[in-house]
Amino acid sequence: MTVIDSHSHLFLEEFSSDLPQVIERARMAGVSHIFMPNIDSSTVTPLLEVCNQYKGYCFPMIGLHPTSVNGMYKHELQEISRQLKENETYVAVGEVGMDLYWDQTFLDEQIEAFKFQIELALQYNLPIVIHCRDAFSYIYKVLKEYEGSSLKGIFHSFMGTPEELNQAMEFGGFMFGINGTVTFKKSVLPQILPLIPLDRLVLETDSPYLAPVPHRGKRNESAFIKDTLTKVAEVCKVSPEHLSQLTSENALKVFGMLK
Questions:
Q1: Up-side HSE of residue 63: CA atoms within 13 Å toward CB?
Q2: Could you tell me whether strands 153-155 and 93-99 are parallel, antiparallel, or unpaired per DSSP bridges?
Q3: What is d(CA 19, CA 12) in angstroms, rounded to the nearest whole number?
Q4: 75 is in an annotated binding site
Q5: Residue 161 lies inside a defined structural domain of this protein
């Protein structure tokens, strides 16, 4: 049984001392692919180094994370553009979107950065990976502007309400990323998950964040995706084997790698 981690930040400093062991544990857990979203210009080099070191196993995305949008965001976006122009290894534009949980100072800039990166994704025929925190209405409004286009992607770490799920479902080219939060005691995901068609689910870890139970509070890593797989299979009333196959196919499909 193999499974895909569609969203992991193994290039961050948290893994600098034991990355080979982390990768080996992921392989032993049956993880067949790890997809890695960028954060900003400061992480491009370590991202590419890890993906080059584990070529064919780790796959890079390029994007500007919404929490990195500040007064220098236009400079950052030009770097994203340059990377896409000069490097064909990127499999998606991400992680992009909006985050109004921590700070709303750069609300307009976040919207502009999101739209700019959607345009890049369409230009290069790549999916986008959307980070959305306390900003769904804004994300939805922007995506509606591209309805009818070839835009596709993943709603990363989806934790919306049933109403938000219905709205997100309107965008048929998008998958829903489920991670360790589904195992948390107060998670609403077990109520939401049965409403999502299985052919639109992908699994992720968001390592080093959001470690699932029984690892909660520890550094998350790709091997722990098995705990998320087990919980999602239980909630959706399917076997882990069936779910791993389906979600793996979904991930490869959205990243344009399904043979």
A1: 31
A2: unpaired
A3: 10
A4: no
A5: yes
From residue 148, alpha-carbon distances to 110, 172, 211, 250, 254 in Å are 23, 10, 36, 21, 17
**Each residue's pLDDT expressed in tens, for the chain with a length of 259 residues:** 999 999 999 999 999 999 999 999 999 999 999 999 999 999 999 999 999 999 999 999 999 999 999 999 999 999 999 999 999 999 999 999 999 998 899 999 999 999 999 999 999 999 999 999 999 999 999 999 999 999 999 999 999 999 999 999 999 999 999 999 999 999 999 999 999 999 999 999 999 999 999 999 999 999 999 999 999 999 999 999 999 999 999 999 999 998 7
Residue 48 CA neighbour count, 13 Å, CB half: 14
Give the tokens for residue 93. 């534009």
- Does residue 220 sit within a domain? yes
In a domain, 57, yes or no: yes
Q: What is the tally of structural domains in the chain?
A: 1
CATH label of the domain that carries residue 17: 3.20.20.140
38-41: which pairs have CB atoms within 8 A and are 24 or more residues apart? 38/62, 38/63, 38/64, 38/65, 38/94, 38/95, 39/9, 39/64, 39/65, 39/68, 39/95, 40/64, 40/65, 40/68, 40/76, 41/75, 41/76, 41/79
pTM above 0.85, yes or no: yes
DSSP annotation of 93: E
Domain, as residue range, for 61: 3-254
Per-residue tokens: 258: 């399904």
136 in a domain, yes or no? yes
